[in-house]
Design a protein that fits this description.
By secondary structure, this protein is α/β, with parallel strands linked by helices. The protein is 40% helix and 23% strand. It folds into two domains: 102 residues, ATPase, nucleotide binding domain (Nucleotidyltransferase, domain 5, 2-Layer Sandwich); 152 residues, 2-Layer Sandwich (Nucleotidyltransferase, domain 5), CATH 3.30.420.40.
C-alpha cells in the first residue's frame, strides 16, 4: 500500500508518501502562481519512482483555489481523485470541543490528531505559518479551544499596506534593530513569540504541565526564541492526515476515490 498525504495551506503545499510504516517527506512548495501539473510531475513522480499510490488524502484550507487542479492531475495520472479530510466531532478518543465541530479548520483538526497520536498527556499544539494557531487538548483528550494569531510575514504585509511602504521580508529578528528592516523583523517576530509564549503559560495555568508541539513554516523562529521547551514536528499535520486515512472505511475509500468523466477530461489544468 502506498498513499500520498497532503497538507494544502494558505500559501504552501506539503506532502509525504505513506508506505504503511512511516511518512517520507516530499519537497514543500509555494503553490501560488505555479503550473501545478509541472511541479507535481517533477516532485511527486520523482519521489514515487515508478510506484503508484492506492489513494491520495488531503487536508485543505485553500478552498477551491488548488484542490480541483490537484484532483484533475491525479485523475489524469492515476485515475484517482484526492479524498478531502473533514473535521469531525471525535476521533479515536480525541473530542472536538468546538461549538460547531465541523467548522474547526481541518488543518488544526489534523494537527490535533497528529499530536494526540504521537504524544501523551495534556497538549499545546502550535501551527505557525500565514496564520498561527495555538490549540489545547486536556488529559482526557478533549480539545478545549484555541487562539488564532497572524503569522510574522502576515504582520509585515499588514504594515506595508497601512504604513508608508514599510515592509521587510528578510530583516534579522532582534529585540532592538538599528535599521528599519531589523526593527520590523524584530517587532513582528517578538510580537508573535510573546503572544504564543503567553498562550502556552495560559495552557499551563489551565492544565498544569503540558507538552507543547510546534509545526508550520515559522516553527523554527518560535523554537529559537521561546524560552519554554518545545517539540518541533514539521510533519504534524501530515501525521494527522495519515491517521485519518488509516481509519477510513475501505469501501467508502474506493467509492470516493473514483474520478468523474469531467475530471478525467481535464488532463492539463491551468
Amino acid at each position: 500500500m502506498i498513499r500520498i498525504c497532503v497538507d494544502i495551506g494558505n500559501s504552501r503545499l506539503k506532502s509525504a508518501i505513506d508506505d504503511g510504516n512511516s511518512l517520507q517527506a516530499i519537497e514543500t512548495f509555494a503553490w501560488h502562481d505555479v503550473f501545478l501539473n509541472e511541479v507535481l510531475d517533477k516532485l511527486w513522480l520523482s519521489a514515487l519512482n515508478g510506484r503508484v499510490p492506492t489513494s491520495i488524502h488531503v487536508s485543505n484550507v485553500a478552498g477551491d483555489k488548488l484542490l480541483p487542479n490537484l484532483d484533475a492531475w491525479c485523475c489524469a495520472t492515476w485515475g484517482l481523485r484526492a479524498i478531502p479530510m473533514r473535521s469531525r466531532a471525535s476521533f479515536k478518543g480525541l473530542v472536538n470541543g468546538y461549538q460547531e465541530p465541523g467548522k474547526l479548520g481541518v488543518d488544526r483538526w489534523a494537527a490535533l490528531i497528529g499530536a494526540r497520536e504521537l504524544y501523551k498527556g495534556p497538549l499545546c499544539v502550535i501551527d505557525s505559518g500565514t496564520a498561527t494557531t495555538v490549540d489545547v487538548i486536556n488529559a482526557d483528550g478533549v480539545f478545549v479551544g484555541g487562539a488564532i494569531l497572524p503569522g510574522i510575514y502576515t504582520m509585515r504585509r499588514s504594515l506595508a499596506k497601512y504604513t508608508a511602504a514599510l515592509f521587510a521580508a528578510d530583516g534579522q529578528i532582534m529585540p532592538f534593530g538599528d535599521n528599519t528592516a531589523s526593527g520590523i523583523a524584530g517587532g513582528t517576530g517578538y510580537a508573535l513569540v510573546g503572544g504564543v509564549e503567553r498562550l502556552i503559560q495560559e495552557a499551563e495555568n489551565l492544565l498544569g504541565s503540558v507538552t507543547t508541539v510546534v509545526t508550520g513554516g515559522e516553527a523554527n523562529v518560535l523554537k529559537s526564541l521561546i524560552t519554554k521547551e518545545l517539540e518541533l514536528n514539521p510533519m504534524l499535520v501530515l501525521h494527522g492526515v495519515k491517521a485519518d486515512a488509516d481509519a477510513l472505511d475501505i469501501e467508502a475509500l474506493e467509492d470516493n476515490s473514483r474520478c468523474s468523466p469531467e475530471l478525467l477530461a481535464q488532463r492539463y489544468p491551468k
